[in-house]
Amino acid sequence: MKDLDALLRKIDGRGYKAYKEIEGVYSFGSYTLSIDHVQGDPFAAPSRVSIKVPSQISKFPKELWSSPIRKKALQDYIGRAALRAVREFVRGGRGTGKSGQVDIASGNQQVLIRNAVNLSPAGVEARITIGLPADGRRILGKEAQKVFFHELPLVVDRGLVFSNLDPRHMACHVESVEDQHFLRNWLRENKLIAFVGEGSILPRRSGIDDSPLAEGALPFKPPESLLKKVKLPNRGEIGGMAIPRGVTLIVGGGFHGKSTLLHALERGVYDHIPGDGRELVVTEETAVKVRAEDGRVIWGVDISPFIDNLPFGRNTTGFTTDNASGSTSQAANIMEALEGGTGLLLIDEDTSATNFMIRDERMQALVSPDREPITPFIQRVRELYECCGLSTVIVMGGSGDYFEVSDHVIMMDTYAPLDVTEKAHSLAPERLNVSPAPALTPVESMNKRKPPLERLSARRGKKEVKIDTPEMSTLLFGEHRIDLSSVEQLVHIDQTRTIGLMILYYAKKYASSSPGLVEGLKLTLKDVEEKGLDILSPWKVGTLALPRLHEIAAAVNRIRADA
């Protein structure tokens, strides 16, 4: 501590690069401060710092992190507590550029596996970033002293020490995540694909604000016919709408809550914080939201179950294009999801290609089947379930043709769900039966696709590895700009950052030896789950959050050849 104080006094007023002298480890009595990396100038990415509080000081009870899911939840809680302390005690704005800014990577409404906070029997480690203060490129040593000796001790005391945190609030956070984990396992055991708890608040504040709608949101009330009760390990018995496996339609008038329910289901693959409103909304963990994605790249995907007999004999069993149409992109998205092992597709007709979803009787009469290369999804959806075990939830507001192929129909009426399955099925015989389609290609026989190694290069210019994430929906990987804007189940930029590092890890370790992309990514995920996120980076960082297999594969599948 005294050494750091002396160094800051010594370099005060000097050029910014003199800050490099403070890299090292310092004892502050109740905790250890490690300055791991110093930024090159006040406008560069902030400096990386880690703080270790020994267990005899931090004293987080072992029962709060006695299992992997509880540890994930408690680490998430501590990260949020540290961030609250930063916002309360750190002034920020201490000079030029990022001077004085202090931050710790923390979640929004979802609870993710991160490396910003790490619990161990030795204690708790928090990884933060600090913008070292400067006026232009002249060091402001006295301002840095205020950050290190006045503000950070308060952050440590109020964010990383159990006795200064609310034990009931902390236990509620951990127990809520544990209950959600239990619910997701319960789904699988009971052959269900989703559960929406009674009283859940589904509407969000806006399209860019994922927090619950503050006023006017109706608590979710399940229809009696789909009501199931389950006893959670901490919360006790609850009730909610249980959606069985199969083909489920969500119907209703415009603005009555169809897409709101689907959005809650697509985010139900993640655990949520208490107070989010969706703590009791859980979905089959492999669920994938698919949509049309005009212009995306496709390489080597077998889309023949949906699109075949193209003009001029173009191959669709290993379909490749740099500019996919709505129908070909949606077909590829489904086949890639199948390749990744999904058990549930989530589809909204508003973001789907119309000609991919359905062809009405008049169009079928006008354009004969031998002239139409597209087999609409309606002709495959039951086969996908009965032969492949793939369930589907579809938001459908404009066509009743899907009634015939559905198992359950839920109508949203002023944000209230009604089970209208019986009525919908009674209407189905009024139309012709859905035309049969040629047998679906067995999923087991799908090609073991492997991306060409040159697509996995992270080199940019003279740099061997260059990976950037300017925003959650954009990954810069070497010379490649990967557009993830249609990968709708990403929830945090730290996941995007981690995807870039996981692609690099896969490229170096498994791309050549594994039989296919998915197998190699599974091995990559297994390594990360066993050894931690830190194996992905050569430097100590605290801004990584674990993505799912499906989002990693989606990023690889969108790498263009012509970088």
Overview of this structure, please?
- With 563 residues, this protein is an alpha+beta fold.
- The strands form eight sheets. Strands 1, 2, 3, 4, 6 and 7 form a six-stranded antiparallel sheet that branches. A six-stranded mixed sheet has the order 18-21-22-15-23-24, with helices on both faces. A four-stranded antiparallel sheet has the order 13-14-10-17, with helices on both faces.
List the helices and strands and how they pair.
Blueprint: H1 2-11, E1 24-27, E2 32-37, E3 47-54, H2 55-58, H3 68-89, E4 102-103, E5 110-111, E6 117-120, E7 123-130, E8 134-135, E9 138-139, H4 141-159, H5 167-189, E10 192-197, E11 204-206, E12 209-212, E13 227-232, E14 236-244, E15 247-251, H6 258-267, E16 271-272, E17 281-283, E18 288-290, E19 298-301, E20 319-321, H7 326-339, E21 344-348, H8 354-357, H9 361-366, H10 381-388, E22 391-395, E23 408-413, E24 416-419, H11 421-427, E25 467-471, E26 474-477, E27 480-483, H12 493-509, H13 517-531, H14 549-557
Parallel strand pairs: 15-22, 15-23, 18-21, 21-22
Antiparallel strand pairs: 1-2, 2-3, 3-7, 4-7, 5-16, 6-7, 8-9, 10-14, 10-17, 11-12, 13-14, 19-20, 23-24, 25-26, 26-27
Helix pairs in contact: 1-4, 3-4, 3-5, 12-13, 12-14
